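User: Predict Dehydrogenase/reductase 12's structure from this.
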Amino acid sequence: MSLYRSVVWFTKGLREDTKSGCESASKDFVPHDLEVQVPGIVFLVTGGNSSIGKATALEIAKRDGTVHLVCRDQARAEDARGEIIRESGNQNIFLHIVDLSDPKKIWKFVENFKQEHKLHVLINNAGCMVNKRELTEDGLEKNAINTLGVYILTTGLISELEKEHDPRVITVSSGGMLVQKLNTNDLQCERTAFDGTTVYAQNKRQQVVLTERWAQGHPAIHFSSMHPGWADTSGVRHAMLGFHARFRDRLRSEAQGADRVLWLALSSAAAAQPSSRFFQDRKPVSTHLPLTRTSSSPAEEQLAQTFK
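Assistant:
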């Protein structure tokens, strides 16, 4: 990561991604965009038991949507489901325990889900930042949930989404991806010194590229990726201790981060935007910082085409 790229990203983040940036951007929001009810619409939210995922699921439930929570921890997931039902009064909240770092378990879940449920909106929210290089039982670097898990789940559910009216896929990426150029030469993070923050940012860049490729290959579905801003989530609190300690008073709330996801999942204004775009604060933005070399080469773009 170049010094220039880091400085530009940090300056941009302080101006746009903090709580004050959120409040400034909100002045231009159209209030009635989220004044909707969605009975009969089925949503699947990964990582729906905490932080932005839970806040998103709750707001969908309050609007009478059917919500499927895909979570890893049974106890925490059951607590979250109970809380969402109590606060929303909506009983149509369903729980699925799936380890999204295990490809075989994801495929099994997808096949079972397609046999029993329909789906209108997929929200890829779950993610992790493992700061030490560790491998799963399948020999995959553990941060693979951020890319491989999203890829398997999304591609497996595309056929179900295409059956419905106004299907959408929203992937919660991160502004951290702006400092990373797509790297297809070291997907297992074996060739350089391991840094969890860098790997996470690379994963988030990969998510954005996947979103663009899916949009090209499946025009019936509206695909989008987004940056929720610098939010005070459990992931930030546990995996980015120094960052959280320094900026916690300036971080957005989980509800503020979820608002941007909800807009993409629920509003007609979001559906009117071209598919494939990357969003921040309810508007499409560039996937590259000014004057930085983070665009993919033709060869890398060609490799990404295999993900469609």
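The radius of gyration is 18 Å.
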